[in-house]
Amino acid sequence: MDGRTASVLRVVGVQAALVSAAIHLIEGVPDLLVYLPLLSVRDPRPYLFVPSALLLVALATLIVRGSRHRRLYSLTAGVLLAYTAGYAWWHLTDHGGLVPSHEVSDPVGEVAGHLATDPVALVAFVAQAVGAACLLALFVADPELAENDRGAAAEPEPAPGSAGDE
User: Which of 29, 54, 131, 160 has the fewest CB atoms within 10 Å, measured from its CB?
Assistant: First the structure.
């Protein structure tokens, strides 16, 4: 991957992460302001949306400011993919719960049906998929990765007290 492609992937990945973060803050903050004073956990989403969206904003800021680390890319992509998996899980379990409580013969169709009726969720879902794809591509092939992230290219240092320290 050349530097120009990596720059485009960074810009698109960060923008997608920020779109997703904004949507989750818009959805989560009003509910959090209602549930938190009551100490209610009736709906767990605001408690998950707000901190994770703020984390996404912080991670995107680090990427924009020039940090090039595999851990940064993987954490950002992981949050985006967690949102995607969480959306599917929420709708397959009748809006909460641990196991599906109704018969779902077509899980993809079920999630697609919910996305078709909620344009904001569709935008978030697409942004999450695009952002995760860009960030995972950078995880694999960013030419500007920090030297300590190169992994196999770096020589392992001998442990202190080994035979080479005499």
Answer: 160
CB atoms within 10 A of CB 91: 19
CB 93 within 8 A of CB 101: yes
* Tokens, residue 143: 């030419």
Cβ partners under 8 Å of residue 108, min gap 6: none
CA distance 161 to 145: 31
| Rounded CA separation 39/166 (Å) | 62
Q: Are 22 and 7 in contact (CB under 8 A)?
A: no
Q: Tokens 């591509």 map to which residue?
A: 137
Helical pair 70-92 and 119-141, crossing angle rounded to 10 deg: 150
**Residue type, position 60, single letter:** A
Per residue in 63-91, pLDDT (tens digit) is 999 889 999 999 999 999 999 999 988 88
Whether the full predicted model's pTM is greater than 0.85, yes or no, is no
Give the tens place of pLDDT for each residue, 21-39. Answer: 999 999 999 999 998 888 8
